Structure formats: C-alpha cells, structure tokens
Sequence to fold (297 residues):
Amino acid sequence: MKPPQKNLALKLSTLVVVTACFIVMGTSLLISQNFKNILTMWGEDVQMTVYLSQDISEQGRKSLEDFLKNTGKVNTVTYINQERALGDFRTQLASYAPDISRDDELLKLIPSSLQVTLASNVQTKDQMQVLQSLAADLKGKEGVDEVSFGQDWVEKYGALVSAMEITMELLGVVILAASLFVMSNAIRASVQNRKDEIVVLEMIGATSSMIRTPFLKEGALLGFISSTLAVILCFVSYTGFRNLLVSKLSFLQLGQHLAFITPTSIALLIIGGTAVGAFGSYLCVRKINDGWAASQG
Fold:
C-alpha cells in the first residue's frame, strides 16, 4: 500500500518535528554527559583535611592513616607536619602580611594534618555522603581535633549534580512523549487516508499482520530516520562548538574535557527512536481488521 501523494507534506513536516524532538534529546544527553565530565574534573579536587592534636603520637597518626586507607573510599592520605604547614602558610601570606609570616610563634598555632582524597570509584553524587560518614567516624578517634572538607561547597556541588540528572531525565520523558504523540498523529492520518484500502483488505479476509505491518514499518522507519538525523546534526553542532572552545576560548581549558555521547548512547537513541515510531503506529492500528475500518464509514 503506497501512501497518497497528498500525504507527503504531512510526512515531511512530521519528520522535521520528530527530528527536532530527538535533537533536543540528544543535546540533553550531550549537556548532561559533559556537565558531569566537568564537574567530575572539579570533584577530583575535593579533599578532606584532618587536623591532628599537638600530642598525637607517631603510632596514633599511622593508626589513623591505616583506618582511612582500609575504608576502601580513600585514594591517598598525605601527612602535613607543622613545619610544612607553616611553610605553605608563609608562602601564601608573603605578599599580603610579610611581618606575620615571619612570626615563629605561628608554628605553635598551626597544627599538623592529614590531607585525604577520595578514591576514583566514589561517584560524584555520593561524595557528600562518603565525606560526612568519614568525618563522623574520625571525630570519635583519639588524636583528631577537627575535620574539614568544605562542607558547604561539597553539599552544593552534589546538589547541583543531582538536580542536573533529574532535570535531564524529566526533559527526556517529556520529549519522548511529544515525539510519540507527533508520530502517532502522522500514522493516524495515514490510516485515515487508506481507509478504503483497509476495508477491501478486511472484506477479502486479510490477516491482521498483513494490514498492520506496513503501518508499523512506516512508523519504525520514521523513528529511525528522525533519530539518525538527530544524531548527525548533534555531532555537527558538537564539533563546531568544541572547535570554538579550542580555538577561541582555549583559556577556559574545557575543550579537552568535552566528548560526544558514547556509542552505547547513540545506539540506544536510534533504537529507542525506532521503537517509539513502531509503538506509536501500533497504538493507531491495533484495532484494524476487527471491523474497525467498516465501522468508521
């Protein structure tokens, strides 16, 4: 069954609209993925500082280091003694308050500490919870005066990542529903235009699959072409934007951290688009061959 020529304009407009829907979905995936990449880069700088008591013994310090390493959540534990801490402090204050930076009494005020970085297997969204758990355990340990990990910044950082994920998931659902609605309308119009043919096929005893299959293929093809075009256009836009960052905004140093959506995501987007098209067609033709066409007359 060939579609009527007058239905071509509707098919083309539907293709454009659905392609636009998938472009938005692909762009959302791109933004979400690269946003996570950039935040993960920033997250690598997240660390915990464990300030030690003045009277802590060497054995007590090593016991704390062993405890942290055995949690499985810690990558490195670096001991900063008082002399090194004072040297860093003097370097930072040298140009602002040189007199204060030369005060030897500062050595008595600046405690030694342990600088703790998280393991790479700790996901960004879990960093806050892991840091809070480690801080709670450490505060009960002998020889620990204070634990700091930039609580406010890490909390906002984790909330930003979670909000981004939820927003992209909701946007994906809305766009998917919109594309399903548009494709269903196109197939419904196609069914109406072929109503006479369907009546004849029903009368001569055509099976359900014989009548429905062309419409299902039409919807699946529409979804496949739309999602494939969307991926291609997203890649062209991504390449242009990345080149802009590298050539014109290289001082931001973001170009090297950007990446196109993974092959798995591309495959899922195209397969999902094809499935949505087929499903939208099925919703329109599921009642065909039970007298539906004749009842419409």
The two ends are 20 Å apart (CA to CA). The longest strand covers residues 74-80.
